[in-house]
Amino acid sequence: MAAPTKELELVSVTKRYGATVAVDAINHRFQPGGYACLLGPSGCGKSSTLRMIAGHETVTDGAILLGGADISDLPPAKRGTAMMFQNYALFPHLSVADNVAFSLKMRGDDKPERLKKAGEMLELVDLSNLADRLPDQLSGGQQQRVALARALITRPQVLLLDEPLSALDPFLRIRMRGELRKLQRELGISFVHVTHGQDEALALADEIVVMNNAVIEQAGSARDVFNAPTTAFVAQFIGGHNVIALPEGLFAIRTDAVGISRSETGSLQGAVTAVEYQGAHVSVSAQIAGDQQVSALIPENTFFNNPMNPGDQVGLIWEETDLHKLTA
Amino acid sequence: MALPIMAVLVFFLVLPIIMIVTVSFWQATEFSIIPAFDLENYEFLFGSNVTYRVFFNTFKYAFITWVFTLSIGFTVAYFLAFHIRSLTWQIALFLLCTIPFWTSNIIRMISWIPFLGRNGIANSTLISWGVIEEPLDWLLFSDFAVILAFVHLYTLFMVVPIFNTMMRIDKSLIEAARDAGASGAQILWNVIIPLTKPGIMIGTIFVVTLVMGDFITVRFMSGSRSANVGRLISNDIALLAYPSASATAVVLLLTVLIVIGLMLRFVDIRKEL
């Protein structure tokens, strides 16, 4: 699996449906061989972007480059990409092995050869013993692994995953995300994963691309995006942040960087509105001047050394260096 | 709720069939019908060459009609389900398909006669175009006319179940096939046709049973020159030979049941019901 991976690049890619702009001239260069997450609320254009990369949606304007070659007008199977669909889209009338071997059959490989290759792929996703089953007879997690094997059998340069974990229950979701990450490392190809779950994106991605209103709000490594959101939207969407309007402008500060003191010594004064016990932490919400809510995530034992109740007047304290100025 | 429905079914379906089976063992003379248990109706039926020819003819009509209704019905359903993007248009065009059904079967059948006749529109048009010199006499009162009428009458029974099944095919399967490099023809053959089989089978059952049970179309469109089992029965009834008609009906019923039984062995339609 040491084949050099090609770089996927979007050059002012635009998608318009009539008068509505779904994707507005976005530019992005994906890390070759990396795990990228397109993150955003529904309707932000992330799925359209993925479907354009896959070739299931035409590009209205701009170009999609893979390894420097323009693939915007190629049919899906000729692009070097493969897609894993949201509901897996397994063929219900075909066995697991035939599902996985489908693209080889379309290509005209003969039966023994394609079944042998399908067997190898099924081994990779650890489903060899279920090769003869029909998709209906599999659990959600197994179906997903079949869909993965089917997408990977063409040896794509880029695997595109459209909300692959959304159909699974929370427990399985966490397990499958570990498997996805492991598989991506083993194969060394680029994964582009569309999700609206920030925890999923943070857990999986080398690179997070946050989209909103048809444009990319911010792109960067998971740590960069989480620690230094550049816009209020990103700070709110990625979670764990307060967005505070101060006289000097709009700032983001991580909830766990906010401390609470009883005295009136903090940077801002407020009144506690809610206290929520979350196990390792206690989340304290306070209302400050200007009707703004600020949350502070306090380590459990710190809080209970000095407990507070709704209605208490408190001072909020933070290091100036933890404040990030937001552009919008 | 089950009891009244059971009563209706017993009264209108089970009892008449029991009646027919019973009468099929009765004896008949030119002027009387005698209750009895006698196999002579069946002996006569299976001993007659006419029976075999008429049954063969019935199967022939059913098969040829099936081939045409299936190819036309599948094409129409495919077009409606996969090429018409908006639901409004799908419904509109689907309703358009049903418009011929607002008139009766017989009227739709009879309307072919002035069109296909020796001096009908079809012949005079073909002559005026110079395609033919003499009027074609096989257009009307022939197997051609019978099958044309059957196809016209029954294609919708193929369109409806096939369209219904096709509408349930998840569109992402088509995308997944395309993603795997399948061409349009390959998608049709490897994805759409296998997934449409139950609809095809339901349409087939409709068409085959309708054609095999028909007698009026064959009589009108063949000008009484061809016969199928239905006409055999209707002739017997006209002669008041009820026991003989019943025996033929029982054999036809069993034949149709066997045909359907065989078809259901190949395709599971339970998911469609």
Explain briefly what this protein structure is.
The complex is a heterodimer of chains A (328) and B (273). Helix content of chain A is 28%, strand content 33%.
Question: Which labels suit this protein?
Answer:
heterodimer; A: 328 residues; alpha+beta; Rossmann fold; OB fold (Dihydrolipoamide Acetyltransferase, E2P); 10 helices; 33% strand; elongated; B: 273 residues; mainly alpha; MetI-like fold; two-stranded antiparallel ribbon; 13 helices; 2 strands; 1% strand
Describe the structure.
The complex is a heterodimer of chains A (328) and B (273). With 328 residues, chain A is an alpha+beta fold. Chain A folds into three domains: 1-80 and 156-239, P-loop containing nucleotide triphosphate hydrolases (Rossmann fold, 3-Layer(aba) Sandwich); 95-152; 242-325, Beta Barrel (OB fold (Dihydrolipoamide Acetyltransferase, E2P)). The model of chain A has no long low-confidence stretch (mean pLDDT 90). Chain A has ten helices and 18 strands. Helices cover 74% and strands 1% of the residues of chain B. Chain B has a two-stranded antiparallel ribbon with strand order 1-2. In chain B, a hairpin with a 4-residue loop joins strand 1 (27-28) and strand 2. Chain B is globular. The mean pLDDT of chain B is 90. The chains are: A alpha+beta (328), B mainly alpha (273). At the A-B interface, helix 3 of A face helix 9 and helix 10 of B.
Structural class of chain B: mainly alpha
Query: Which stretches of chain B are low in confidence, meaning pLDDT under 50 for 5 or more residues running?
Result: none
CATH class of one domain in chain B: Mainly Alpha
Helix fraction bin of chain A: 25-40%
- Secondary-structure content class of chain A: alpha+beta
Strand order of the largest sheet of chain A: 6-7-8-3-9-10
The largest chain-to-chain contact, stated as pair and per-chain residue counts, equals: A-B, 25 and 17 residues
Alpha plus pi helix count of chain B: 13
CATH class of the largest domain in chain A: Alpha Beta
Unreliable parts of chain A? none
Q: What radius of gyration of chain A results from the CA coordinates?
A: 24 Å
CATH topology (fold) name of the largest domain in chain A: Rossmann fold
Biggest β-sheet description of chain A? 6 strands, mixed
Q: In CATH, what is the homologous superfamily of one domain in chain B?
A: MetI-like
Total number of distinct structural domains of chain A:
3
Helix content of chain B: over 70%
